[in-house]
Amino acid sequence: MYVAVKGGERAISAAHAWLDETRRGDPAVPELTVAQIEQQMGLAVDRVMAEGSCHDRFLAALAIKQAKGDLIEAAFLLRAYRTTLPRFGASEPLDTGAMRLRRRISATYKDLPGGQVLGPTFDYTHRLLDFALAAEGAPPAAAPEAETPVASTPRVTELLAREGLMQREPADPGEPGDLTRQPLAFPAPRDVRLQNLARGDEGFVLALGYSTQRGYGGNHPFVGEIRVGHVAVEFTPPELGFPIDIGEIGITECQMVNQFKGSRTEPPQFTRGYGLVFGHGERRAMSMALVDRALRSAELGEDVTAPAQDQEFVLYHSDNIEASGFVEHLKLPHYVDFQSELENLRTIRAALVREAMPEAAE
Amino acid sequence: MSIMDTAQTEQRRHWMAVLARASGEEIAGLLATLPPLPPHATLRPAETGLVMVRGRAGGDGAPFNLGEMTVTRCAVRLGEQVGHAYVAGRDKRQAELAALLDAALQDPARRDALMGGVVVPLAAGQAARRDSEARRAAATKVEFLAMQTTR
């Protein structure tokens, strides 16, 4: 129970003034620009766009600056901002097969069409702190360019599907569910689960994906393919009646290949776990793909025993904005609630004392 | 739709895609080198909103809602033609100029000059940037030389 209380305005305004000052830090140090954050903290921007569920690099960078680098707070700011904008409609589904690739790797085939393209990756770095970066200097030398550019390449899952070894995805023409418009209901269909995971907390989804590898509902995955790059977004304005290309967005896709022992109606084959996220977010896309596959357990006739396979557990707890809201609301005044708990406790304890020492109470 | 209409729609889709990838500043810079366009009427002032981006489960399955993106739209009338723009991001100047050019480019009397003066140079710059990125990616392609020689 909450009771409206007046007061505290002066304290709040002083607290916010101090917040502004601490955000800026030492004025002798140059102020960060939003463009610097967008350019040089690009993966933080990508995470905020994914969890804020809104692709706009400048807005995500601004949110990071405002949130003093607290990425969950920044995602919250971005989600709040998007509610002020009208929705023009939904895009045509992205064609990730036509993606302009920066990176594309497969852990299942060494020599696959299009090859293994590493792109700008942390993989194979030594994870030693680079003190050279502490000294601001000239920009690094330009990355080498090959004579022949990479071209778009078919998905690895398609190669397996052509052989009949990979389960085909059912192409449901129906309108997908939308968590921004309808609350979660169970059992949640796969489209809603994918939307939930795509904007879920990276740490939570990562931990759940990890738990499946460690035996909590294991499904022995292989990375069929990870691709990072840009893809054109097509939208059909009602006033035109044909789809137009409205620009490109950065995207990461992960296809996990998983064993499936088959069922009465289907032969043994591989099945997919799928991850798709805004920006460059490999860890996020891989985790999403692991959890997507775990959440398919029930429909594939597998036992549902582990947390990552439990729809309600996963989908109700993945959203860090909802989770922060509910955890952090405990900070708000609960004076009246707590008074009643105190009263209760005092009454119970007094009763216990009376029972233990009846004569003393008389 | 007749073959003629299809070809025209394809050409229109092409210039719209090019204009959607150019900043308002870039478009304005190129337009300034050409004779000015006659005055136009704004049918829908530039407005920023959201488009829900959809993906497909497994890359090729049923659609799902991935998340939204900011998009700015605008509509203008120039003589007989109505021009539309829907462009990723929040650059209102870009949407206004893209809508104006969409109207102007539909007029066969203006098309060649505007294609040559604005759309072709923008498309060339975009293609060069795409090509440079694709070459950088190609430079990171793994050649399994050691594996092949030790086999």
A few lines on this structure:
The complex is a heterodimer of chains A (362) and B (151). With 362 residues, chain A is α+β, with helices and mostly antiparallel strands.
Largest sheet: spatial strand order of chain A: 3-4-5-6
Give the ordered list of helices and strands of chain A: HHHEHHEEHHHEEEHHHHH
Radius of gyration over C-alpha positions of chain B, nearest whole angstrom:
20 Å
Number of strand segments of chain A: 6
> Based on CA inertia axes, which overall geometry of chain A fits?
globular
Helix-strand category of chain B: alpha+beta
How many structural units, i.e. domains of chain A? 3
- The ordered string of helix (H) and strand (E) elements of chain B is HHEEEHHH
GO molecular function (chain A): lyase activity
Pfam family, one (chain A): PhnI
Keywords (chain A): Lyase
InterPro entries (chain A): PhnI (IPR008773)
Descriptive tags:
heterodimer; A: 362 residues; alpha+beta; four-stranded antiparallel β-sheet; 6 strands; 15% strand; globular; B: 151 residues; 52% helix; Carbon-phosphorus lyase complex subunit PhnI (chain A); lyase (chain A)
Structural overview:
The complex is a heterodimer of chains A (362) and B (151). Chain A contains 13 helices and 6 strands. Chain A is α+β, with helices and mostly antiparallel strands. Chain A has 3 domains: 9-82, no CATH class; 96-120 and 150-168 and 178-323, no CATH class; 332-361. Chain A has helices at residues 9-24, 34-40, 42-52, 57-66, 71-82, 156-162, 190-198, 202-213, 282-295, 311-317, 320-328, 335-356, 358-361; strands spanning 54-55, 87-90, 100-105, 221-235, 244-260, 269-278. Chain A has a 4-stranded antiparallel β-sheet with strand order 3-4-5-6. Chain B has 151 residues and is α+β, with helices and mostly antiparallel strands. Chain B has one domain (3-150). Helix content of chain B is 52%, strand content 26%. Chain B has a 3-stranded antiparallel β-sheet. In chain B, strand 1 (41-56) and strand 2 (63-78) form a beta hairpin. Chain B is globular and about 60 Å long. Classes of the chains: A alpha+beta (362), B alpha+beta (151). At the A-B interface, strand 1, strand 2, strand 3, helix 7 and strand 4 of A face helix 1, strand 1, strand 2, strand 3 and helix 4 of B.
